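Predict the holo structure. Ligand: flavin mononucleotide.
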Amino acid sequence: MPSALSSFPARVTLLALFSATTFYFLYKSRRLRHLKTLTLSSKHTTRGKILFVSQTGTSKNLAQRLHNLLASNGVVFDLVDAQSYEPEDLPKETIVLIVASTWEDGNPPSGARFFATWLAESVKDFRVGALLLKGCRFGVFGVGSRAYGERFNAVAKGFVKQIRDLGGSEVVPLGEGDVDGGELDLDFEKWCEKVVGFLKGKVLENGANGNLECGVYDSEEESEGESDLEEEEIVDLEDIAGKVPPRKKTAAQLRVMLQLVLL
Ligand SMILES: Cc1cc2nc3c(=O)[nH]c(=O)nc-3n(C[C@H](O)[C@H](O)[C@H](O)COP(=O)(O)O)c2cc1C
């Protein structure tokens, strides 16, 4: 008796299914390749970012102060709420300064959960590896309270570890502010001095008119060429953070499809 798969319509359906699956996985692997290219490229010069993670405004105010301080030193960064920042853009950043508070159970404020989860899942995803943020220099200042013991500044500490694990270079050591009994303002000032020191070093290193990859402000806005480059290199990393099936499974799925078609 002929098997159900030997009929012409069944074979055509399977062939169509097989082709669709193949194209889907080719598309996915192309995106992964694209991501690697993006990661390994050193041509990404976007303006530096100051990201703040804040619920009641403490970190936001400090971030604003840092923004003003840098501007008064001739260095203009974008000031961005982590809540509205697309973490998939992190691989394109050259320098990111984060001011982050910690809330209940050592978690970030609810608005920054997506950002925090993206980092945590990227670290866990073996396909992303330690090169994802290779071109990204960073520094973190934590805002919290020592009254919370081991959870003091847990979010800021976690960010440092995760960004390091993803290949980012920490250009200033973690700064820690204690809102209860600590010298928050003084500690933040000291951390800011280190940031300014680093950036000034970069200015000297690159020369007055050099292309300052770390995002030191060059009064000319980004050239059209750069904008086009960025446009071209937009990568959807949503799947990278754990949603796509691992490669081994993909290969196994393809083998099964092939066997079915050859039946
Ligand atoms: C309910 C609650 C939970 C908190 N949990 C922590 C914590 O686990 N670790 C910590 O370092 N600080 C903790 N804090 C202190 C906050 O980080 C601190 O109030 C900070 O100023 C909040 O900054 P923001 O206004 O930028 O959100 C907590 C504060 C509150 C009110």
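Residues 146 and 152 are 5 Å apart (CA to CA). Residues 44-217 form a domain with the Rossmann fold fold (CATH 3.40.50.360).
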